[in-house]
Design goal:
The chain has 600 residues and is of the alpha/beta class. It has four domains: 2-18 and 158-234, no CATH class; 33-146, no CATH class; 243-274; 286-571, no CATH class. It has helices at residues 24-32, 58-68, 74-84, 122-129, 133-146, 164-175, 201-211, 219-229, 243-254, 258-282, 351-364, 387-399, 419-432, 440-447, 464-471, 540-554, 565-571, and strands at residues 2-4, 86-89, 105-113, 116-120, 178-180, 193-195, 232-234, 289-296, 300-302, 316-325, 337-343, 372-376, 405-409, 452-455, 487-492, 499-504. Strands 8, 9, 10, 11, 12, 13, 14, 15 and 16 form a nine-stranded mixed beta sheet that branches. A three-stranded antiparallel beta sheet has the order 2-3-4. Strands 1-5 form a two-stranded antiparallel ribbon. It is elongated and about 125 Å long.
């Protein structure tokens, strides 16, 4: 979606704003018009009607001095001089033999003290302010002849008006460009906008010159306007973009029928409005509501080696499941970020492990003054959006009477950027800096910088899948289509110990009906899963590749190395080559619901 270019707000341009107050010339000017000494004491004996210097005290002189230098600006100081002095034409000239030109003006001096004007002689006035007589004469004579204060002609901006036409021409050209909307932008007030990735400032300047061949604007001046007046950048080629958005955009470009094109544009707008509604829920804060978002990081390979054979070899995996408490606007730290880690030979990566980790985190969290829990996850049918997760939430809601409602929210496919992805980004940035990682503890140390670590082996893993088959209906028998729902709302029933579930297709509208999802004669109270024991059979071909990789990289005696003890323990386990390994569920777009085979 294209968005127009607008000028940047003050202080929000691409380039850092100017700080004239820190320029050397302005610092020198400030120093020039600042006080360098205290007012000198009065040495004259004037005590007449014309000069009343003797009536002034040291305190009066100091106050007048401080008032004059309160603002080190020449214009304001000159205004005070003009207020305290008077000037008039010389009325009488006495004969003299002096060859110098006679004075044309007479200046009288005064000081504001004791809430009145006190006339003083020239020497007292100048000594009090620490200035020369020529400055006073210049200010007064200029005002007498022109009626204005003298302008400061030293320094200042001398080029703005000179190049105003050129500047406006460049601005109009840049405003005519179209920006690309950020894929993961959640706010309509985002300051920075992005031009297409194939452009740069030099290309824009050449395009400007081709449209304005008579312009004398130089490349450096064009770059200055681009950086100083706009907050624009050049995007990077997008990855992990919503397939629906790409499909509709391409159809809109190639469609010639105007009515069909309008329908496509409407469909795309509705799709993006749904995504925006999800992100609004992700950053929403309410009193009495606790928000959790969770996701799985991509599998971390073991061992991580710079050997090219790694690209063709099967490797062991370390799994990282992150759960974040708070909205997308809340800061991320170890108090709000929780990571559950386990290796491939300990547990599988399926709905049982994910639901058990969420169950553990809910049990360990403090829900004082909380009655509503919102759980947000992507719509992967094998891990999050399934009957096992619903069964876990039902069981937990029955056991915690202080919570009235649990809400599960799933994003629009392709628009699933969540706080957990920010944690994963930081972790992967650290991992890229390491060339070799051979032990799970090295990964865990990196993850521990950004989240509180819990090893999944220390948490009871429940067999929710088996329990679901005994108590709950199949997803095809639910009173809502699980693949189409974006929200599930769970509440306890009023008549008996049961939980009612409502499926909602929309984010902001409630149109569903709350009913039980248990089989006839069954209740949610019967959901009592058994505990799964630790240990998963790893496929023999994968272990063979890992062994060959370690032998090639570390030699035949790799098992004697202390840092490779993890692989020694894994490979020493007896493997039944005929037994199929536990299937791993990858959360990719288009994954199938585990029970009904519906693509979500």
């Amino acid at each position: 979606m294209e968005v127009p270019v607008t000028e940047a707000l003050p202080g929000k341009s691409r380039k850092r704003p100017k700080l004239p107050e820190k320029w050397k010339a302005n610092l020198a000017k400030k120093e020039r018009y600042s006080s360098h000494s205290l007012p000198e004491p009065i040495t004259c004996n004037h005590d007449t009607k014309t000069y009343q210097c003797k009536k002034l005290k040291v305190r009066d002189l100091q106050k007048f001095h401080d008032r004059f230098y309160a603002t080190p600006l020449k214009a304001k100081q000159d205004a005070l001089i003009l207020k305290c002095c008077t000037i008039k034409k010389t009325c009488r000239r006495r004969p003299t033999k002096n060859v110098r030109k006679c004075r044309e003006y007479t200046i009288k001096y005064a000081i504001y003290a004791q809430k009145k004007i006190v006339p003083v002689c020239q020497q007292v006035f100048l000594n009090t302010l620490g200035i020369k007589k020529y400055r006073v004469q210049f200010v007064m004579q200029n005002f007498f002849t022109t009626g204005k204060l003298p302008d400061e002609k030293r320094g200042g901006d001398r080029k703005t008006q000179k190049y105003a036409a050129k500047r406006q021409s460049v601005r109009e050209f840049i405003k005519s460009l179209k920006c690309v909307e950020s894929h993961y932008c959640r706010s309509s007030t985002q300051q920075r906008k992005y031009l297409p990735s194939e452009l740069n400032i030099n290309k824009l300047y050449k395009l400007y010159k081709s449209q304005n061949p008579d312009s004398t604007v130089k490349s450096s001046y064009f770059r200055f306007i681009f950086n100083a007046d706009f907050n624009l950048s050049f995007g990077t080629p997008r990855t992990d973009v919503c397939s629906k958005c790409i499909e509709l955009s391409e159809k809109i470009k190639t469609e010639n029928d105007q009515s069909v094109k309008v329908n496509l544009m409407t469909e795309k707008r509705i799709h993006r409005l749904k995504a925006r509604a999800f992100f609004n829920m992700l950053r929403e804060k309410k009193e009495g509501m606790a928000t959790f978002s969770f996701d799985c990081q991509k599998n971390l390979v073991l061992p991580k080696l710079p050997d090219q054979s790694c690209y063709y070899s099967r490797q062991l995996y370390l799994y990282n499941f992150a759960m974040i408490r708070g909205s997308s606007k809340d800061p991320l730290n170890k108090d709000t970020s929780f990571a559950y880690t386990w290796t491939e030979n300990e547990f599988a990566k399926s709905a049982n492990e994910i639901a058990s980790a969420v169950y553990d985190r809910l049990n360990k969290s403090d829900f004082t003054n909380v009655s509503h829990i919102r759980l947000i996850a992507d719509g992967c049918g094998g891990q999050n959006k399934n009957s096992s997760m619903l069964a876990m939430c039902c069981r937990w809601l029955l056991d915690n009477k202080s919570i009235n409602k649990i809400e599960l929210v799933f994003p629009v496919t392709g628009h699933s950027y969540m706080p957990a992805d920010r944690v994963f980004g930081n972790i992967e940035k650290e991992i890229r800096k390491k060339e070799v990682i051979t032990s799970p503890s090295e990964y865990i140390d990196i993850i521990g910088k950004y989240a509180t670590i819990t090893e999944l082996t220390s948490v009871p893993i429940y067999d929710w899948k088996t329990c679901v088959l005994q108590v709950l209906k199949t997803t095809a028998q639910f009173h809502f289509k699980i693949s189409q729902c974006k929200r599930f709302i769970l509440k306890r029933s009023k008549t008996r110990e049961n939980v009612l579930v409502r499926g909602e297709v929309f984010y902001n509208s409630d149109t569903g009906v709350s009913k039980t999802i248990c089989k006839a004669g069954k209740t949610t109270e019967m959901i009592k899963p058994s505990i799964i024991t630790k240990g998963v059979v790893v496929k023999s071909l994968k272990l063979r590749d890992v062994k060959q990789l370690l032998t090639k990289h570390y030699g035949e005696n790799w098992a004697e190395l202390q840092q490779l003890q993890f692989y020694t323990n894994v490979l020493s386990v007896q493997i039944d080559e005929d037994e199929e390994p536990t299937e791993e569920i990858d959360c990719e777009m288009g994954s199938q619901d585990e029970e009904c085979g519906i693509r979500v």
